[in-house]
Amino acid sequence: MSAIASKPLDTRSSLLRSxxxxxxxxxxxxxIHQGIVVTLIQKTPFILIWQYIxxxxxxxxAFAGGMATAWLGLFFHLIISxxxxxxxxxxxxxxxxxxxxxxxxxxxxGFGVFIVMNMIVTPLSAAPPIxxxxxxxxxxxxxxxxxxxxxxxxxxxxxxxNI
Length: 163
Prior knowledge:
Layout lengths: L8 H33 L4 H13 L7 H29 L1 H5 L1 H23 L10 H25 L4
């Protein structure tokens, strides 16, 4: 029996609501972040961001796919956002230490997401390697994951009574 199925219906509903809220927040805030930081400041075409995400599955062909692969990348990012939210929210529901220190745990989780995505997921995907960012951009990317991915999940868990 799954962890969610063994919970009472109101608790399952609360967990699912938190996962949806967290996943949507991560998805939307990262679209905004990519639009501001990567497109406006770093001068990378907006479509290229989403094609790069799609290239994790379809490889280099994603960059020749136009809007179709950009939409595919956006869809993949939505799925990834929900998975990231679900892992943290379900972990917070099951791990007492995480429930007691949810904000600290969420900040560490955001850092962990950065490490896993950049050191494991992306290198194992079909996406082409990109050069390592300069130190200021590396710090910005880490802070983005800590503050825009991890922290909101901790706040959602705390505010929705999942602790």
